[in-house]
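Structure ticket #2291
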Amino acid sequence: MRIRTAAAAAVGTFALLSFLTPAAHADTRKGDTAFTSLAFSRTTVDVGVSATQTMTVTATAKDGSGIKDIYGAKLVSPDSRVIHAGSAACTKPSSTTRKCVFKYSLDPHGTDYYDLKNSSAGTWQFTAEAAAMDGDFYELQTGAPVKIKRYAELAAAQASPEPVVKGHTLTVTGTLTRASWDTNVYAGYGGQPVALQFKKSGSSTYGTVKTVSTDSSGKLRTTVTANSSGTWRWKFAGTGTTSGATASGDSVALR
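Resolution: structure written out below.
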């Protein structure tokens, strides 16, 4: 479906969200119109439960007759949620090109229907239409992705007993949570692999000792044999919908 909204309507009000009725289509074009560059200020945006995150997309389009405007610039989520640009600033670098910077706000904690939802996490697409002076156009629907993820947190690692006798058992615990955009709280993230890492005293680097899965409440608990003094921590690599996280370490001395 061709986009034929006015530029002012395209930017609309501050970060307005809505839903697409049809599914996204493949790119369509007429003539020599093309997007020559697309640049994201952030290729991955991790969103928590309260703070609004912002990002910009800079789009440059070209046509031999010149570009009239870039219309309908928006971000589309995996669940077909849409964020329109809160603002747009356009320039004309040459007689044949137009460059626009679109600013987007990602809000997990509004009070209306248009907030981010958990189902929205993952790979979003930037879509827009470049319209040329001679009637040519290029409608971008695919190929411009950005990751918008739920922010994850790891509580500081806790190792006990402290100090520990060399060769004895050390118990290390922790908790993995992630932002729920549906309830605006951090909730336990169950069934996830988390690396237990150790940095020997005097070293500057951590190494993975083992991988432990979180329980249904996001809790971590494991035992290791203490052979050296050093610092223990948890590290979560993240998923396609959730950010990575690294816990603060707990230093344990031998006795």
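Closing remark: The longest helix spans residues 7-11.
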